[in-house]
Amino acid sequence: MMDNKDFEVSNPPTDTITGLDFSSQADYLAVSSWDNQVRIYEVQPSGNTVPKTSYQHEGPALCVTWSKDGTKVVSGGVDKAGRMFDISTGQSTQIAQHDEPIKCAKFLDQGNVLATGSWDKTIRYWDLRSPTPIGTVQLPERCYAMDAKGPLMVAATAEKHVCLFDLNNPTVIFKQIVSPLKWQTRVVSCFADSKGFAIGSIEGRVGIQYIDEKEASKNFSFKCHRDDSKNIYAVHDISFHPVHGTFSTAGGDGTFSFWDKDSKQRLKPFPKTTGPITNTAFNRNGSIFAYALGYDWTKGYKQALPTNTPKIYLHAVRDDEIKPRTPKKR
Q: Does the model's pTM come out above 0.90?
């Protein structure tokens, strides 16, 4: 059963959720979904949520990200557009364009620069004051997942390519590797300290990868999101805790867990929910963990039943669930 202490977000999207992102300035949660909308909710200290506003794409919205100062939300969609919503004016404007759907969007720590990754096999960088990109990078394949933290940006594409960027020189791929996992990449997430990244795939595995060759001995992969009947589920999202550097995984099996990569331990498994978990996010201080339930399309359109209504839950994170453990003695 669900942990009934988790708060359900009121007025959730009407179709599968594709992105969750908390503001770094306040407890506001932005949500993108297949119903073409991006919604912004205020999370009150009581745990209750208030829908504040929403804006529209001309097709499914596939990703959402907050600006570092918490004044703007940017989303990308199947309409090939990057759209920015200004919190102070309530206006939405188009600020990015690709030749194919925009799958990923991230604000970088460097200035007010936005990076967008698309199925047109490019990453484009945007200064929000200009309608043309300030830089473009050709990727080996369609961009499926992307994350940035400090000087590190990681983009994962079709055919298991992973491109690493030093954002001091953002238009050059400084290293290209093949995913350590056997199957298609679903998610990449940078470590809190920018020293590496976690990668998750459709075969219920996560790879922990360090950037520096000297730390390559710390690289490892592990299985998760599999059940006792040997069913294997996709790892849909990986979120790092902003304080402790531990992380969550969530998957198509409807479960999420907290993990510590340094001691290679699972810190806490959580009970199975009522459906696949498509997205997760910690708030700015890691006290709230948001997770979205909804159909993940792994079984095709015939299983897209009206009962698979999307839901978002907020879990109040306790320190004993997420703090790193001392490594076990060998």
A: yes
